[in-house]
Records
---
Amino acid sequence: MTRSNRTLNRLVLALVGVLALAGAAALVWPAAARARLEVAGLVVPPAPRLGLAALLAGPDRLGVAGAAAAVALVALLLAVAWTASRGRGGTATVVDVDGVRIDIHAVRDLLQDSLGPTPAVVGVGATAHRLRGRTALRVTVLTRRHADLPTLLDAVRGAVDDLDAALGARVPVVVRVRTGLRSSFAREQRAE
């Protein structure tokens, strides 16, 4: 789920589940009602054709079946297109020089070590993406509330410069600075 919206995923799953339950109930309901009446000992006349059975037995049955098939085909094509567009571009390799590969975990550790002493930083995350044949980094810096941004940006610049020196190559970097629930519960760092 690299770039997909989790809320959208859950909504689609919930909708599919509700539709599946409704379809199952529509199929089982007439038989269950008839069985309930038979168990009660009542005389059950032949059940009239209702709902889907009436549509499929009537003169419009080909139209109904065709419309259902068309809706199912469109839904299938949209689902395949949506699934195929998820997660493109993510890579674990940041630099690959002469068969030596540097993994995103090493880059994340370097950035964490470089930004760890900064009091405003709670955590650092990094992901690598292949864009037009080049690797770019997306660095997320989780900060405490009301952090001193100029000091923080200087620390991030220094960390990125240290990273470029360690990698031996300049990698394009997009930095995202944010606060969140984790930052509000984080303990304050104290010098000892």
Note: The mean pLDDT is 78.
---
Amino acid sequence: MIRQIPVQQDRLLRPRLLPFLLPGAPTDHGTHSEQAKNTIQAPGKHLAQASGSLSVLMISVALNTTMAHANAAPSDLERITVTGSQYTLATRHNTHFLSKERIESMPHIADDIFRLMPALPGVAAGDYSANFFVRGGHSDEVLVLLDGQQLYRPFHMKSFNSAFSIVDTDNVGAMDFSSGGFTARYGNKMSGVMAIESLYDMPQYEHSLGVSFINARAGSQGTFDDDKGSWLVSVRRGYLDLVLDAVEDESNKFEPIYADLFAKVSYELTDTQSLSGHFLYAWDDEILDDTFTEWDGVREYQVKEKVSGEYSSAYAWVVLRSDWREDLSSQTLLSVARVEENRSGGQYDPTEVWLTLDDNKFFYAYSLKQDWQWRVSDSHYLESGFEAKYLDAEYDYWLEAWYQVNYDGEDYRQQKTQLTASGNVFGAYISDRWRLNPDWVAELGLRWDQQDYYGFTKAQWSPRVALLYQPTDAQRISLSAGDYYQPEDILSLQVADGSTEFHGVEKARHVILSYQHALSPAFQWRAEAYLKKLSQLRPWYENAFDLYEFLPEGQADRYRVAPDSARVKGVELSFQHHITSKWQWHASYSWSNAQDSINGRWYPRSWDQRHAVKLTSRYQFDNGWQISGLVYFHSGWPMTGESGRLVKNTPNGTYEIQRSLNERNQLKLGNYKRIDMRIHKIYPLSNSELTVFFEVSNLLNFDNECCIDRTSYSVDGQGKLLKKEERGHWLPIIPSFGVKWAF
């Protein structure tokens, strides 16, 4: 009898040795207390390793704690990761990964797995959003998979910068994350892959209830029919609206209501085939109705802002996993997805803008994909597969705005768009992995993709190559390169900024060199250098003062960015040290340079993060309490801003202030600093357990600059124009708490 597990990428389908585990990831069946005794046993050369704690694993720099030699057992060739930039939360065979004690020990806002990602090297994000940027790419350049199914814009509170994800962290059993150089299996994204797998190895029965500062949840899981089948269901409801309602005054109303539901049923049909059904539903109802007072240096005035949104996402899919022979297996996935987004709002600022808008989107996706794995021989492993999708989207958008301040000479703007888009997306790939000799492994891949929706048919061929060299069990050198294409997603047409046609397909070329060394079973380090060259780029729109405006397309500071090309280069250093079984630390330093070429000149991207330092540590006391912390520093993001000058009004001889946007991203926000702390303990009870935690985000209440709130001007007694710029800030100190009961 085979154990039923959900389909996911091949590296997740079987127990395997992973060269790039997140720090603290257990590497075998040993428990945390057996850490110093754990050893990887593979025929040939092997390396004794410590298995760390998952708590550090979940929010720490990425380093491998397992180094599988290229001359591993014959069945291990399929499990060797040849490319660099791979980070993994768990190995399938380690059930200790599922310990809630370890999952919950590190600080993370709203218990959101997406908000853990900025702790990885090369990942940048703002406090207001769960979305993130990978190695200088846009936030929409990451492929997100849940049990093999692609998730489209998988966020709650989309009207407010997508503050949280729709994936409940308590349901996560494993995750593979790649920040570049990923294999030919993945297509249509240029920067990264986040492959999430839901819980596996279900207990016979387990139920849980939990409440935190932001969410309340309930979950249940178990098995049936002599463990041939298993089931998992969870429901989560955010109650931030109730908290805010208790503290708001009558002039301010903010009600972000959201909920999600996940269910999975798996069953072993035969000894060689298993079937699973999955369902994910997310829903939002959001309202912001705010009136506040501003001061322009001369007088007070009121500003009114209103935003409302209704969003829903539904996914249903089935997965058939088949082991045809000992050396041949396949996974087949059939799915349907539906996304609906309705947003409306308005803003009245007598000194800047009066606007109103209505934005409605509707999207369907039908998908069939199949992946095959064939171990041809002890030194030869093949992967191949295909995917076919039918996509259908509808847009209905309307905006009207009058500007008191304009930077492009436009005092009035009206935008109305109604259109539909539909068509097919096809993809196929083959990847060939060879063991050249005991120390060398090579992988060659080729991917083909085609899109034919809304007015264009494009096809792309994407060659990818990777080479792994392990001179010793403790050292690993890898080189990977390849082409990665990304079509404009059918759900991402920029109708709010006047676009009515899809741009086409963007291209990125990755080159990554990685060196890793385990100085001892308890201490490892890694250095990685990368280069991304981007071309055929789609123009996009940004705001000169604030990347996270609630109604960005209607603001006067909105401008178009149309690069001829772009490049991102960087170096990442990562270190991890398991001092004892109770105390571990991890650190990383990243240097990166993300720039766009516009009219022959290079400009930094708005999320260019030149220097970043991330440090995490965890300590467990003898009485069971655990304390963990995160120290985070990065260079301030670039910003455009504005300037003013006095211009004489010829008819009456008076002077007026003429305002204009600065050259793109030549200003700099202040450096970002944050310290988070969490204490946490699990209390065993009769036939159950109780988990409690207390957390403080931004413990020292640093004023981290996020944006430009307002720019005002005045004239002194000598007739000189004076400029005053007020900076906005990221989140202040935020205390939090949570309780969870598992029974």
Note: The helical segments are 10-13, 54-57, 100-103, 240-247.
